[in-house]
Specification:
Layout (H helix, E strand, L loop, with lengths): L1 E5 L4 H12 L3 E6 L16 E4 L2 H7 L2 H6 L5 E4 L5 H11 L5 E5 L24 H18 L4 E7 L1 E3 L15 H8 L2 E5 L5 E2 L1 E3 H13 L1 H4 L3 E4 L5 E2 H11 L5 E5 L1 H6 L3 H13 L6 H7 L7 H14 L24
Helix pairs in contact: 1-7, 4-5, 6-9
């Protein structure tokens, strides 16, 4: 099958593209720049690379036609964030008959009523990101229901992997949180530290896309949560990270307003976005329909990412070693 992957050298594409090549697909990798994937693999030698500035071509009205001109049997869109962008690609692919797989987000649900959250629970998104992604889902799945094309939405959680910082136990991306836990310094958490985050390793997201691609009969017209088996509380997450460095977490808890005032605005806003959602999602549907089974728990996924940060000097741990015996290293791209 000829598959076009949009955003191919990003977090998910790094793992998805080799999986597709190994499975025998002809892959065209679209990316904005010349940067390579986060993790190299010989499979990239068999991939056709196309450099495209999607924002510029969306504005010019040419991106959809450029992708359609490649005559793909399937398109995996990992980098779509607005309804006009989604509509342009959908309309261009309709005459071609391509199967369109869209990377959504668990944030389309907003705050949960019951946990774990299933895909059919009523959605109440908030924030521009969640609202736009929910509207994109409605557009794509509505087109499937009308018989316009085949399409699937996968909703990852907080994507983790080597090469970038994971959402941390304070609910933001500031690596100083890991530094504090490694050193045994006190870390304040908002409220009681019982809000949740739900990670997923990028390779598990890639696994899910590959499975949906190979099972359009089961996947088309559907949305699936793609996360690890269980979410983490901020408090439990912090205690686990400290233990990886041989420390006992020194945690304190503060009301939101007090906690937020001590952080840079962008960090506080990121934390608010995460704890206001406090995701804890079910993967039962993806398991039953696609055979999806995450290879990484939330902690295993974060551990791999944190090990990379330590190895590359982005987490400062003078005199403390990350215990490498806690989780075994895993080979990626396993079918």
């Amino acid at each position: 099958m000829k598959v076009v992957v949009v955003g191919a050298t990003g977090h998910i594409g790094t793992y998805l593209v080799p999986r597709l090549v190994i499975a025998g697909h002809e892959v065209v990798a679209i990316s904005r720049g010349h940067r390579g994937p986060y993790l190299g693999h010989r499979a990239w030698d068999e991939v056709e690379r196309v450099q495209v500035d999607r924002d510029a071509e969306d504005a010019a009205g040419t991106f959809g036609s450029r992708v359609a001109a490649l005559r793909p049997e399937a398109v995996v869109d990992l980098m779509c964030f607005t309804v006009p962008s989604a509509r342009q690609l959908l309309e261009a692919l309709t005459p071609v008959g391509s199967y369109l797989l869209h990377c959504g987000t668990i944030w389309v649900h907003g705050s949960a009523l019951e946990v774990p959250v299933t895909e059919d629970e009523a959605r109440h998104p908030f924030g521009d990101y969640g609202v736009q992604k929910a509207a994109i889902e409605d557009l794509l799945l509505g087109a499937v229901r009308s018989g316009t094309l085949r399409g699937t939405v996968l909703r990852p959680g907080h994507i983790v992997g080597p090469g970038w910082a994971p959402v941390n136990p304070a609910g933001n991306l500031n690596v100083e949180v890991f530094n504090r836990l490694a050193r045994g310094d006190e870390l304040a958490l908002p409220n009681l530290g019982l809000e949740t985050v739900h990670h997923v390793h990028a390779d598990d997201v890639a696994q899910a896309f590959a499975r949906a691609l190979s099972s359009p009969g089961a996947a088309s017209g559907q949305a699936f949560h793609i996360v690890s088996e269980r979410a983490l509380t901020l408090r439990g997450y912090a205690e686990s990270v400290a233990a990886w460095f041989g420390q006992s977490a020194r945690l304190s808890f503060q009301p939101w307003e007090t906690w937020a005032a001590a952080w840079e605005p962008q960090d506080a806003q990121a934390t608010w976005d995460h704890i206001a959602h406090s995701p804890s999602m079910s993967i039962a549907k993806a398991t039953a329909s696609l055979g999806y089974g995450p290879r990484y728990s939330s902690l295993e996924a974060v551990f791999e990412s944190l090990a990379w940060l330590v190895d590359h000097g982005q987490v400062d741990v003078p005199g403390r070693r990350l215990r490498r015996d806690i989780y075994p290293l895993r080979e990626p791209y396993q079918p």
